[in-house]
Structures are given as C-alpha cells and as structure tokens.
Fold:
Amino acid sequence: MKPAVIKLWTGIGAYSLTQGLVWAVPAPEAFSQGMGGQNPACQPVVVSEGGEGGEGAARPRYKPAPANQRLRDPKVLAGIVEGFVNHVVIPNYQALEQSTADLNEAVQVLVRDPKPETLAAAREAFRRSRVIWEESEAFAFGPAATLGLDGALDEWPLDEGEVVAVLPGSGSLTPEKAAELPDGLRGYHAVGFLLFGSQNNKSLADFTPQDYAYLKVVTPVLAKTAQTLRQTWTDGVDAFPAYGKVMTTAGNQNAVYSSVGAAVQEIVQGMIDLADELGTIKIGEAVDAQNPFLLEGRFADHSLEEFAANLDSIANIYMGRYGSQKPAQISLSSVLSQRQPRLHQKIMDGLARSRSALAQIPAPIEQSLCQAQDPIRAAQREILALLAVLSDELMPLVVPE
Amino acid sequence: MIRLTQLIQRKWRRLFLLIWTAVCAVILSHWLTPRDPQAGGDTTVVNRTSRAYEQPAANLNAYWLGQHQLGDGTFEAVFVSAPAPLNPGLGPRFNSNSCANCHIKNGRGLPTRGQRVIRATLEGIPQQLAERAIHGEQPAVLANLSWEELPGQYGDGTLYHLRRPQLALALPNGDPYPEGMLVSLRVPQPVFGVGLLEAIAAEPLLSLADPDDRDGDGISGRVNWVEDVVTGHQSLGRFGWKANTPHLLQQTAAAYFHDMGISNPLFPDPDGSVDIDQATLKLTTIYVQTLGVPKRTGIRQVQRGERLFAQAQCSACHLPTLKTGSHPIPALANQTIHPYTDLLIHDLGDGLADHRPDGLASGREWRTPPLWGLGLAQTVLPLSGYLHNGRARTLEEAILWHGGEAEAAKEFFRTLPSRDRQALIDFLESL
Structure:
C-alpha cells in the first residue's frame, strides 16, 4: 500500500498520544516501548498542519512538448511497452513469487525448529523479499492496485491491535480462515511484526506458540498472493485478462489503453509517482515530522534498503531490465540516448546522485532519522530533483496526442 | 494622374479583397474545425493513464498545490483500530479503512464487500449497514449479492442481456432483517471534478429545474433540498447518487463517519469526541476539490456520435456545458466546464428504482451523474460497472437501463442501427 498513508499522523496520531490516550486493549510491544524509545530527540510532537503545506514539490504540470520532439514512432513506442512488460515487470514479479515462496519455506523451518540460525534465515528471506517487492512499486498501478493485491501484500500501517486480538486464537487459524483475514493481517507487515518485533528487538525467547501458529498459516497466504500477482500479468485471473497483454496490445480496440502512447505515458507516470512518493512522503514526511513511526520498514529496521529498491524500480524501467537478465532491445534509455542525449544524461546522473545520496545516510534510518538530518535532506533533494526531470522533461515527450 | 490613382485604387481593392477572403477562410476553417473543449476548464490535465483521475488541477498555485499534496496523504491514509500510534479510530463498524480503498484510483468502486455501500431505511430512520467490524465487534449486516440476467433486444433484432442485483441481507446472527426495510445498494463514485461542480452557482441550476415539465419535453428535473449540517439550513443538494449532500465538506465528513466509522467535527461520536480534527477533514475535502479533469481524446473522430447524443436528448439532462461561479479555491472559479450533468434529480423509471426515498428524491429519482472522464473508467479500474450499483457492465447497458424521463432517449438509442449506436458509444469513450 502506498505509504502516502500517513499524513494523518500529524492530525490524529500525535493528538492521541499527546492527549495520553488510554489504551483499551493490552498494549502491544510497539506501543508500550513508545516511539523513538532509544531516540529521545524523536519524541512525538504535534506538527502544525500548515507547516509543510506551502512549498509544493514538482508535480506533473507539464505541457506536451512540440510534436517534433515527442516520441511518436509507433514501433518505438510499442518496443518500449514490450520491453517494460517482458523485461521488467514479469521478471520482477517472478522473482517476487520465488522470494515469497522462499520466505514461506524459511518460516516453516523456523516454526518446526526454532533456533537462532533458523530465525536469522527467516529474517534474511523476509528482507530479500521486501527489496524485490519495493523494486516493483513503480508498476503497482496495474492489477496490484485494481485487484487489491497491493493492499493484501503491503497495507500499511499495520493494525497492530487487530494482530494482538487475533493472536490468542491463532492455534485454530486454518489456511482458509487465514486467507479471509483483513488485508493488512496477512501481508508483509504482519509477518514482519511477528518476525522482528516492533523495533527489530525481538529475541527468540520472545516468540510465543501463538506467534508460530500465526506465522505458519499466514506466510503461505502471502506467498499465494504474490503468485496471483504474477499470474495477473502473465496469464490473467478470473475475468481479468493478462495485464502484460493488455499493455502490449494497446491501441484502438483496447478498452484500457486506447493508444500505444497512452501505455507509454502510463509507464512514465509510474516512475514519476514513485519518485514523488519516495521523496515527498516516505522520506519527506518522516524527516519533517521527526517520527520513526512513519518509516514503513521500521519493524525490521529496513526502510533505507527499501528506499534504494524504489530507486532501482525507477531505474529498471528506464533501462528496460531486471536484475542480471537480458535487457530489452528498446527502452526509454535506449531511445533517449539516441534522440535526447542531454536529457538521457540528466536522468542517468539523477539516478546515480540519488543512489549515492541514499548511501550516505547512516543505517538504519529508523535510528538515525533525527541525528542525520543533513544527509537525509540531501538525499531527499536529489530524489525531488530527479522527480522534476522525470515530470517536467521526460513526461512532455510521451504525452499522447 | 487620375488614371494612375484609379489603377492604384483598383489594385488596392483587389489586394483588400484577397486579404479579406483569406481572413474569412481562416475564420471559417477555425469555426468548422472541432476544437478541444477543456473538459474541466483550466483545471484540465493531459493524462489518459490509469492515474488520470489522480492528477492535481493544472491551474493550482503553489499554496493550493501544497494543500492538495497534504490532502493526498489524508485521502490515502489507512485507519486502524484504536489505540494505535498512527491513524487510530477505525470502526467499530465500517465498510473500508481508507477513502482510497473504495474510490479506486479516485474513480468508481465495485459492488463487492469492502467497496459497496448498503443504505437502508427502517421505520423511517435512514442508516448505513456496515459489513465489517473491528475485533470484538459485529458488523451490522451479512450481505450476499447475486445477479439476475434479463434478456432484451435492439431494434435491429440484436439480442442483449442486462443484469440486476439481488441482495440477500441477514443480521450477524443469521436472522433475517425486519420486514419493510428499504434497502439501496450503491457503489462509490469518482471524486475528481467535484470541486468544479461545487463551484457552480445555485441560480443556473435552479433555472434548469422544470419540476412540472412546463416546457412539455417530457423531462422535468428538480432540486433535492437537503440539510446543510454546518449551517442547519436547507440547501441545494449536489452530491451523492440522489443529490442528498449540499457540499464537499459534508460529503467528506459523512463518508468518514458512515463508511469508516471515523468521527469528526461534523459527525462527532455521541460523547462529542472525534477521531480526526477539522484540519484533517478540510485537507481531505481540499484534495478532492482540487483534482483536475482529464482532457478528452480523439474528438475529431466522434462528431457524429456527439450529434446523436444531442439528437437523442441525452444532453437535456447530461448538460454538456456549465459555468462555475465563485469559490474559495481560486482555480475553480469562473471556469467553463463540460461535465455532462445538470446536478438535478430525475425520474429514471421502475427499472432503476431502489424504492427508497432520500430527502425529496423518490425511489425512482436519481441525480444526473457527470460523464466527464467516462472513457477512462476501464483504464482506471478494469471491469468496473456503471450506474448506482454497478449493474451495467458496459456503457450500452447503462443507457439501456434508462427509463422514466429518459425512456424516449433510451428508445432512440435502442432502435438506432448498430453503426450509430457504436458512434454514440465512441463519443462517450472520448470523454
């Protein structure tokens, strides 16, 4: 789920905490430890609503570029879409499917044989899978969003109260019942909460039989959801045709994309939205509010790795490749390097500068959020600069006629 | 000398004539070439992707763009059960846990649990029956939706099928709901462009109303006067399937309260407490107010369909052009817009009736929904349906469900040759 989700922190979360809200259910670890327990500078404060409003970051306010500069050659446009589907999206979702199967396998081993090694292996499998998921976020616009699979995998924030309420009965959770749990309770964040604790502080001794029972039935559901997501692009699910085909057959007769240009615009819009979300929301709001609760990867102290994976998501689309697999013949990068070498260089530089700026932030960012504001702000600036290039210079070239 | 002057004059006359002809030709061709109407005036955005309904209005200044971005966050915020460090207050009963989870990508929702809304009236008391609840609580209703297929035939003999929902309701313990309860199944509506609809002054809408059909065109249309919970006065209803809400602050607050169980300053809990404050409520309202309207596409290819739309009298209610008046958000003020609605309630016949009155609106009356952005519905959410409960799977089906005041328009469409039917649909797809 998009972590655009969190703004309300300023309105209500802080309000409730500062008003000394009485917890009505036994407080899970997450609450009783309080935010920034080891990080006093990060105590919750109510942020004035108007404080961040005035300075709007770059957003798509583009005008189409002159016709002779726009990408209009149908073969080139179709090549970009084909490369995107077959060399980026599908390999990424195949890797996601494999990584959630691996995570499930590691969790089942942990449940059967709980010891430091099996716990470490399950946690490592979780982190690996999270990176692959975050690499896919620039194309969450497809079935991930429309079929609710994004929510089923990644709804955030986790309803910790619901998890605490469900846990005592987890011994009687059947696979069928687990599949019917509300979205957030069968996604990554529920599994992460149980594997790592609220702040990456859970020891093997803290695990209860209920934790194991819950993990045992919920992790397979997560893996199944990832498999369904891959199928939505490769084969289609129920009445929904394969989204890969929907995109590659864009044109007059296509109910979703009435032109190939619209499909290319969709791809670029995905890059823009993720750059915006990363710079403005994921990093921006957390650092503005000085509030580690706003970091989505906080259970595993993993947010920084996930930010980098988001950047890779944008880069992968631009380059038309995934991992070590063969890149696409035609990609935005291959086309622009020929036709708009200056813009191509700008995008490549923007990606590289953003990547190295993220690497300068002391890890984990859940601990360094308040002390390391300079490098965090610097990384945010680089990502917003990249966003401006994508929305103000790349998008005008692909606006369909 | 005289000859020379005459010669020059003649020459000038010819030149003048030439220039005049050229100017006329340019003006004429300009008139004859269809222009791209800016669907949402200056708010219009050039975007035909699945995120087309999610773009900020193109004419926002830096301040309002900033407000829009903050509102984007509140619109997407996922609520959880209290207590919690982030976004507590969900429930106890609810349909969904965020605005964005029902208004998928700011567009329509599906008639599935978690997106649909079940409105009911029992012993005169209107209420919303929530299908979900937080831990330890019961939902208000168990609902099971099935569809009944109804065959039909075009004038040229081509067969079609419509479907209508059959909703079976039970109490959480399995007992049936009391007899005589009036029930209305609804799907979420798109939320873009609503700021512009709010900015239309009351007078032009009032002048469009013709409750007694004095002009004898078979189409009446009237205003649903509803309570403004801010002022306590009766006000012109504009939003909701039956126009039962006067403005977007109230619409947003009611949705928070009824759809998510989030109490707020307009709809507080019985003890006066609220889950979100006024600032948050306002930001979410500003977000929907400041969304842009997608620009139309392929206009030159759909001229015939547009003429048929007018000929069929569709445009008598789905009014192509309106003007906005003043609005606190400057980007919305004084815009010429093309929403294809009159915001009035009309009798749509028995086929579409929910038999549940809502304010002044009878069980047969519905507000004319705007049609802008309609051509992107399947891009934004593939397989999403049309009409108040999503029963129409295609635009053809949506038209064929029209009755009552729109019976003649429906018949016009039903008896068109298939080429013309397609032309009309192509026009709708261009919106």
